[in-house]
Amino acid sequence: MTPSLIKRRFMDSASMDNQLRWLSIGLFVLIATISVLPSLRLLVEALSHTTFSTSSPMAEVLRSERTWIALRNSFYTSGLGTLIAVILGCGFGFVVTLTNIRGRGIWVFCFMLPMMIPPQVTALSWLQLFGPASPILNTLGIEPALGSPQPMYSAEGIALLLGIQSAPLVFLALRTQLISLPQDLLEAAQLSRASQFRIWVNIILPLCRSAIIAGAALAFVSSLGNFGIPAMLGIPAGYIVLPTLIYQKMAGFGNDMLSQVAGLSMIIALLVLAGMLLQQWLQQRSRYALLGHTAQSLSFRLKQWRLLLEILLALVLCFILVAPLFALIVSSLVPALGMPLNAETITFGAFYEMIGRQGVTVRAFENSAFLAFSSALVLMLVSLPLGYLLMRLPMRTRAVIASLIEVPYAIPGIVLAIAFILLFAKPLPFIEVSLYGTLGIIFLAYLSCFLSVCLKPVLSAMSQLDPALEEAAQLAGARPIQRLMDIILPLTAPAFFAGGLLVFLISINELTVSALLWSAGNETLGVLIFNLDESGDSVLASAIAVLVVLLVAGLMSLLSLFAPRLPKGVIPWHG
Amino acid sequence: MARLILDGVEKSFHGAPVVKDLNLTIEPGEFVALLGPSGCGKSTILRMLAGFEKVSNGQIIHGDDCLSSSMRHVPTEERNFGMVFQSYALWPHMTVKENVGYPLKVQKTPTAERNKRIQDALEIVQLEEFADRLPAQLSGGQRQRVALARSLVTEPDVVLFDEPLANLDRHLRATMEETFRAFHKRTGATMVYVTHDQSEAMSLADKIAVLNKGQLVQWGTPQELYARPRNTWLANFIGRGSVLSVAAVAPSQYLNGANLHELIDQHSPDRAASSVLVRPQDIHFVSADDSALIVSVHSCIFRGERYDIELTLKDGHRLLAYSDVPMALDSQHHIRLGQAWSLEREV
Fold this sequence. Notes:
The complex is a heterodimer. By secondary structure, chain A is an all-alpha fold.
């Protein structure tokens, strides 16, 4: 053997194990395709026609007055919504986490519910609560006069719902921080003879500031990208925000409509990016390393105030959750809007109609269930090797890849949908099959969008595994894939199912992405509710929405069953 | 059975050296301890032996095979080494029997033989009746014994121990040390044992490699290390005793009492000096006479079978001595030194 041959052989065995190498290459291609490619395509489209002449699509977008109105409206509704989210989220966060209030788990579950209920259902239920045709007001006999305006069809109505929908984000961020505050800090302050008031102002608030800022930024960003609420409440009132502007532009065909839409999407994407960078910067500025052991979290005894606070919480929950859902149920049981609900009028007709007679319902259920199930399944299968490989990478590379995976989830669904349209509008090269107008394109968009949802619990479970467990298997002679199946998979299985269930839960009633990607025969549940409401069939829409809420609550309860076997923080409403 | 050779092994992480030019030859069947304070690189050496880490330089040779060099790296899976971890590393979803049998399952050993060998391994660590329990249902000591059984079930050439007793309480450690000793005797495997506890290393190992800051300080039997430590750092690290500055003298020799007293007398701060190690058992309390050293008692601590007495020499040096009776603080006494070992300067 020549020396160079010997060297080659040695080099081969010194490099990474073959199995691992193929796994890495496969996953690299996958991430590139579903995470990076859509964003790149969007960028290219928005920039490609940019010339310095005044007639380029981007210039047209920037010149159009509607763009600026929508931008201003987006800022107004999202800003006001964030304010509401911070007030609600902080109030609940402090009371539920820091006090000895009873039934903590139920409060948290109920407060988290609005986040998991699809926005169009939230909007629909609030529409049923107010306005002249409200079945619940009609039943009570206090409906406003016919012809009086629906108060929800307004900027403030949109902001209120955005606030309620994103309040759990603030709540979660704050609660995570509060749980990790050690009791010692409070005791040390008490020993220094600080009053309750001083403890709040000087200790608890400064330590929570960064968490509140982070939560508020998240709430703002998610409100900015929200499509369902402004679509249901804003479009009838002629009030446009950026996502609804894109939707309307997509509906009206034009010469360079796609480029204009891509330009608009870039504006949202940039705003969201700026928001997230700002949040990281603010958070880093006000972060403290917490010393002290966290065996016991902070807790205030409430004494006589406890019952009062519990009643207050219940009232708030009644207003933001129970009343609208009740209105939704009532509307699904009346024969037509504007009629009161009583023993004579009650009917399950809407349910029969939707389930038994309208083929579209069954089809939408099937489509959504198929999409949710298959994306959950595929993402679960991908998360195992992907999480495994990520854990083996150096810290810095891992952070970069993790944030690449995060991008499609962070950018608003409407932007992602545009990116996928651009990507798949033409038939695929080589095989000449077009995905556009099929369920396939929605499926791929879901994969891209929810990869990080599924991966996060898996990664957090894997990072808590003692590396020695795998090393021991390595010493036993097991190769990477065998170690993955025998050791890693069984030990992280709960996190895996939790990730899959979360994906299922979010994608079963997803609206934003599918609103732009659906086609006749490929409706999803989210689109169905939206279309029914738009065509005036509120009763039928309510019936479907009731079923969706039941499904969501059921799946959340199912996930709660997993909670004891999962790492802390994997299931948002447990902690 | 084959000889394990570390030849000029070096390891650095991001340019920072962790192990520097290490040369060790471990004979087949030897029980070797790698001893040193935390951060001395001993665990890194073990991980290089196991194949979890590649070497930056030098090579690791086992018999006729090169396991690791800068060109070649035999993956852990192909090394047939066993290992016992500090955290036990038992797979929580498998029973004791499945844990122990996993290496055989990977090697596709026929079921009948597999069961017999699991049985044998569990018998060695006396856990036969726990075969169907889960690791969570065992105590710390039992878990470590399962890990031990797992490491020996494939009859590996080399068994590695990574601080296996660090998580156990003091009483259990003594029992487990006994288990390890019996295990070594019965299997005759080569063993490499990492620890920061010198008494553990001294009582178990045939040979000890003492490491400091990534470098081998001394390589020898426990008796050699105790009797003839190379430098002041090692003298302070192994066993108990006091290091004294005396007038210059050649290193690595025993000094008898008369010479020693002379060297102490001749010592003055402005002249070249050497260090010597005085073990407490070599310090004798005597009645006043010309050649005796005058000391005062600085502290007196009760240790059960005796008292630890810390003495102050007239030049301010401290000396550790043993006494059967308590001594009053600041009382004056006379001592004579039996012998001392002269040390190299620490580099």
